[in-house]
Amino acid sequence: MYVSASQEATPTLAAALTRRGFLQAGLAAGGALVVGFQLPLAQSAQPEKPGFAPNAFIRIDVHGKVTLIMPQVEMGQGIYTAIAMILAEELDADFSQVALEAAPPNDKLYGNPIFGIQVTGNSNSVRSFWLPLRKAAAGARAVLVQAAAQQWKVEPDGIRTENGQAIYDADARRIDYGALVDRARELTPPKDPQLKDVKDFKLIGNPLKRMDTPDKVNGKTVYGIDVMPPGVKFATLAACPVFGGTVERVDDAKARALPGVRQVIVLKDFVAVVGDHMWAAKQGLAALNITWNEGSNSAISSDDVWKKLRAASDKEGAVANSVGDAAKALTQGDKLEAAYEMPFLAHATMEPMNCTVHVTPTSCEVWVGSQVLSRVQATAARVTGLPLDKVTTHNLLIGGGFGRRLEVDMVDSAVQIAQQVDGPVKVVWTREEDIQHDLYRPVYRDALSATVANGRIVAWKHRITGSSVIARWLPPAFQKGIDIDAIDSAADIPYDIPNLRVEYVRAEPPAVPTGFWRGVGPNNNVFAIESFMDELAKKSNKDPVNFRRDMLDKSPRLKAALELAAVKAGWGNPLPARTGRGIALQVAFGSFIATVAEAEVDASGEVRVHRLVSAVDTGIVVNPDTVVAQLQGGLIFGLTAALYGKITIAKGRVQQSNFNDYRMLRINETPQIEVHLIKSGEAPGGIGETGATAAPPALGNAIFAATGIRLRRLPIDRDVLSGKKPS
Amino acid sequence: MNDSSPTGRAGRYTLIGIVAILAVVLIGLLWMGVLAPHPMDFAGGTRVALTEYHAQDPTGVPAELKSASLIEQGEYLARAADCAACHTADGGVPFAGGRAFVLPFGTLYSTNITPDKETGIGNYSDANFLEAVHKGIGRDHTRLYPAMPFASYTYMTTADAAAIKAYLFSLAPVHAPAPQNTLSFPFNQRSLMGVWALLFNPDKRFEPRTERDPQWNRGAYLVEAMAHCGECHTPRNLMQALNNREKFAGAVQAGWRAYNITSDPKSGIGAWSEAALAQYLATGHADGRGAATGPMGEAVDNSLQYMTQTDIAAMVTYVRSVSGIASSDLPEPKASPAPASHAEGVAANSDPRGKAVYAGACASCHDWTGVSPVIPSATLTGVRSVNDPTATNVVQVILSGSHRQAADTRATMPAFGSAYSDEEIASLANYVTARFGAQPSAVSAQNIAALRAQN
Amino acid sequence: MVSLQINGEVRTVDAPPDMPLLWVLRDILGLTGTKFGCGIAQCGACTVHVNGAPVRSCLLPIGSVGDRAVTTIEGIGASAVGARVQKAWLDLEVVQCGYCQSGQIMSATALLNSTAHPEDSDIDAAMAGNICRCGTYVRIRAAIKHAAQT
Ligand code: FES
Ligand code: FES
Q1: Residue, of B198 and B126, whose pLDDT is higher
Q2: Domain A303-342+440-722 is found in CATH 3.30.365.10
Q3: pLDDT digits over A73-129, tens only?
Q4: Nearest atom within ligand 1 for CA of residue C58
Q5: CA-nearest residue of chain A to B357?
Q6: Residue ranges covered by each domain of chain A
Q7: Which of A210, A385, B139, B289 has the most crowded CB, counting CB atoms within 10 A?
Q8: CA distance linking residue A57 with residue A84, whole number of Å
Q9: Hey, are the CB atoms on B363 and C122 less than 8 Å from each other?
């Protein structure tokens, strides 16, 4: 039922689909998974003159301008460009004539084939749209060719396409797509259009300049936080610092007296101040005297969270994968046990949470940058009680998603505020509110045990204990006690292990809400697995690279990545004292990656990461420069978490508040980073989250190599490394 | 567990030892206590009872408030005496008590002074209140710890104390029992505080000096009876009483260094202009001198910012009359900014971590020159704390930030203590003092750990 | 009423003198290229130039700006160095989500204005105050060097 190591050579998209197979099937059975590429473009804005819109993604006007309707949202991962490249490639469009438009909310038209709803996440934009979009574009192209054939009264076979033109080589006739629009509109695209051969790709595989960047270097890009509908007012809010608390009473006399403060809005569990600008709103909020009813969570601390999690981890879990007889094999041979623990983490997207809303008695208009646009619309409809079609949404560019914008809490509260305001209101969270009212990457505990013999793993048991975000976020996907995300990259561990058992225990932390965080399930699992692999290598007296390589015969793509990374990183070359190299492998999101970290640890426990080297096989690379950039950025994201990331709880509230106490890696702490792409003809894998997953275990292993100290908890504890605290 | 003799014996020896030591110390300090100068003795001159003083009355409220209600007058005076500073817990209701004072021998909590009958002072008669303020004796005859500055408040007039009580009784009662103190023996023996009071509390009301002008006398009253500046700025003797032989020469209190505020031009405030002093007291900031942080910041927020200009001027006059005592470890503050380039100023071979942290977390606001491009109160040039080679307050501000409640809310600094290691903070403090001060500090990670423990 | 010189134009705004420049730019003047990230001078997203020097506008009261020239990301391309930095950013595809990049470009331009050929340590000192959550630091460093050479 899960893709085991032996099947890894299957094309990645198929692998991903198989892995999520039952989820997809379930949704399809319910009728949600309609890949409506043949549907006319109903919801999107219509061009003035009728154009050619063979499906929901492509619109060509009479001037030849090609508009691509983007189902996925751009949050820095370069997806606008990558998807445009896929479409333009198969359409043979003139890339300079291509314009982008964000798709309106519509799960049917724009739902992600893997999730069945309109969502950008899980590094699957390219993976899930790769084939459907190519088919959509190829269909459109076929129709254009047919239209040209009709016009010229020649056989379509003799017509080829290039750069937004149909060309009849026999007499060198050419015609722009724009001139074919009227005819094309009358034709029906073929059911199974011919796709291009990979070797004929002209755009795909070339490092194309991203389409969204020019406006990002001159300040013109409009993010959610930048929208300015006429007459907009500004608001900021405060929720009870204790999770689950409510407002008891508010003394707003001082706030109301401040210049620029317009309204104080008191709702059940938060208070907002509306002003002429954010400054007035902020000052007003600070001047409020709010008494909270802290509710039942006011005594909860991180200690309680960990106690509960550890207790839950002692119980048996639901079986996610079982091969051979792990229970028996674990009683024989040289056994090692270890437990790894991961902290709560905030997303801290650079653009703080925000949402702009205009509610009237008969309508609601929402401006936001969201990873789940249809949920934005549904939320606004639910809060206002308006029908869906009275809710207009505008999805804007996103200043960092990382999973935070898979949630719609910021929409919910903004709509509630807007219901009380005459005219549009932009609700912007302060950074403090953003850090203290996130939906946090859950705490996890990974209990591992294994036996080794002759330098190989004989038995392996992995019990993952932690919150199920899936169960809340996509309930149908949580079945038989298994969270498909929480076990991702663990149930289908790439190593050749004859006796395997992977379990999952769902354990929700008290009070603290949890959410997806860049790297999701693999993030936690790969840290535990790859740290433990190093411990087992040590137990087997084997070099960490050799130990892994010897168990990768059935995973050639990963093995190739391992070998390349080792060579490029100079694995085995001597290093100065207190400096070490660590390696970590992963098969996640359909990509095969090996990463080597080189780090130095001084006597006081300070860690300096000198170098990170990744070798990546992500199948066919659409835009190689974007893949490299995503890896670079992801590695830094992961390094930040490994070195500094932790959210702690005291008295039911988050103790961190801003970048002074929720520390970010800065440029002067950033190592040299090298990313090596491996050429591949396999279907594209996901890349956006892979770096975040790769860095922590590679760093942990490098620290071990440098110091002999094994850190089983993140973030790394300098006091343990300096010997001030026992490990 | 019947056989408790070993611990019992040890306990007895300890007890005998402590009693013996206490006896010796007591005798010594009796001598010290009787002979020690009182806070205003430095001024010399003739003291007269207030009733005998015929110039303008130095006590009570300033002219602007003379016709205000008793409660309003009490509010001004309660602010002048800064009752809220100690009787308000972090984030708690003002005057409801519960603020923790972490001392080497345990933790002491301030009490609730709202008029709640059960847990506050609702049952206090005027006489009870005066006993507490002037003598450190609670309503149930328990002795108060001198964390309550009754040895200063004792100079307060009965009328002013009554006005403060009237104000406190006008507040909404808050039911807030004070947490149990956790003092160890013998400090948990409240009766000993009676002995302490006998030795160190003069139990006298304010007596003006006839040779001094009314402004000085007003200042003296405000500084000594009300603001109790000496409680932090005057060093203490072994028995924790103020040692007025070194009046205002500076001391370390609760992990913060209360600087020398004598007229010494190099280590004190002798070189400050009157205007700078007044500005500092009234706003918590004076150009070229720095911003009040920590406990001094709180004193400005809770108390000094509410004082009238004339009262501030009077306090300045009085404080400046205290003659200079040099603190040998405090150099004259460096008055010139550091170089604009990060590459100049501090030797490249110094610990690079401090500079790295400074570049990331500090330079945006404090600049490489130390002259803030953003807000004047963030300028480090000329500031005493960065010219203190112990770097005590520099470390404290890095650890816990500065959270000023005064009008200008941007004059705050976030706390960096939880995100940076002891090593990084030590190194940063050393970098800051080396770059912006007259003399670099040599703080170690252990120092940081010790200071953290006090917060 | 406060008068400000922004990108070469005099703008008069009805705002209290203690209001930080950031909110005047964004919410009153509609110059939203300058970003809000933290409000406490820890991230650099709000960086503008005041007389050429990089300043965190989230803390800078407009009352203290006086007649000094303010340049924002919308105006930085008008200077030769600013345009060069923007071009280097595009040439090397520095940007990801882009939210921090206005601030990064303002800090980088200020650096190149004062140090034409910065070394790594100069880049560290000038750029460490600008957080990029997407992790574009490697390319920022490269782009600054690239801009210095062009
Ligand atoms: S918003 Fe000004 S530095 Fe972060
Ligand atoms: S590019 Fe996204 S925060 Fe820097």
Answers
A1: B126
A2: yes
A3: 888 888 888 888 999 999 999 988 888 888 889 888 888 877 788 888 877 788 888
A4: 2
A5: A668
A6: 13-214, 224-295+353-428, 303-342+440-722
A7: A210
A8: 10
A9: no
CA-based end-to-end distance of chain A: 39
Strand-pair partners of C50:
C53, C70
Lowest mean pLDDT: which of A486-490, B4-8, C58-62, C92-96?
A: B4-8
**Both B119 and B20 in a single domain?**
no
Q: Is residue B414 part of a domain?
A: yes
Q: Are residues B409 and B297 in the same domain?
A: no
CB contacts, 8 Å: C21 with chain B: none
C-alpha to C-alpha distance for A133 and A153, rounded to whole angstroms: 30
Superfamily of domain C2-71: Beta-grasp domain (3.10.20.30)
- Residue C56 to residue B374, Cβ atoms within 8 A: yes
**pLDDT score at B105:** 79
Domain range A13-214, CATH class: alpha beta
Give how many domains chain B has, as a whole number: 4
Q: How far is the CA of C35 from the centre of ligand 1 (A)?
A: 8
Give the CA diameter of chain A.
Answer: 85
Q: Which of A210, A402, A659 sits opposite C38 (nearest CB)?
A: A659
Say if residue B231 is in the same domain as residue B281. yes
Q: B271: domain range?
A: 227-319
Tell me the C-alpha distance between A330 and A340, whole Å.
19
Chain C residue with the nearest C-alpha to that of A79: C96
- What the block records as the tokens of A281 is 């709103």
Residue B374: which of C59, C121, C128 has the nearest Cβ?
C59
Domain C77-149 in CATH 1.10.150.120? The answer is: yes
| Per-residue confidence band for B363, with pLDDT thresholds at 50, 70 and 90 | very high
pLDDT in tens, A515-550: 999 999 999 999 999 999 999 999 999 999 999 999
Residue of chain C minimizing CA distance to B410: C59
Give yes or no for residue B13 having a pLDDT over 90: no
Q: Write out the residue limits of the CATH 3.10.20.30 domain(s) in chain C.
A: 2-71
CB A145 within 8 A of CB A162: no
Name the residue of C24, C27, C43 whose CB sits within 8 Å of the most ligand 1 atoms, as the mutation to test its pocket: C43
Query: Chains near A, with 3+ CB pairs < 8 A?
Result: B, C
* Average pLDDT estimate for B122-130: 96
Is the domain of B22 the same as that of B135?
A: no
Closest ligand 1 atom, residue C44 Cα:
3
B25 shares a domain with B93 = no
Judged by CB atoms closer than 8 Å, whether chains meet at C97 and A629 is answered as no
Ligand nearest to the CA of C40: 1
Q: What is the DSSP track for A634-688?
A: HHHHHHHHHHH--B-EETTEES--STTTS----GGGPPEEEEEEPP--SPP---T
pLDDT reading at A39 higher than 50: no
* Mean pLDDT, residues B15-30 taken together: 71
Q: How far apart are alpha carbons B302 and B300 in whole angstroms? A: 6
Q: Which residue's CA lies nearest to atom 3 of ligand 1?
A: C41
Residues of chain C with CATH 1.10.150.120: 77-149
What's this model's pTM, rounded to 2 decimal places?
Answer: 0.91
Q: Would you call B34 helix, strand, or coil by DSSP?
A: helix
CA dist B152 and B160 (Å) reads 14
Establish if B144 belongs to a structural domain.
yes
Neighbours of chain B (3+ CB pairs under 8 A): A, C
For the domain covering A224-295+353-428, report its CATH number: 3.30.365.10
Q: Which residues in chain A are closer than 8 Å to B359, comparing Cβ atoms?
A: 666, 668
In a domain, B52, yes or no: no
φ/ψ of B111, rounded to 5, equals -100, 165
Give the mutation target among C99, C105, C137 for probing the ligand 2 site: most ligand atoms within 8 A of CB.
Answer: C99
Residue B407 has pLDDT above 80, yes or no: no
Write down the mean pLDDT value for chain A: 91
- Residue by residue, DSSP assigns A429-482 as --HHHHHHT--BBPPEEEEEEEEEETTEEEEEEEEEEE--HHHHHSGGGEETTE
Cα(B406) to centroid(ligand 1), Å: 22
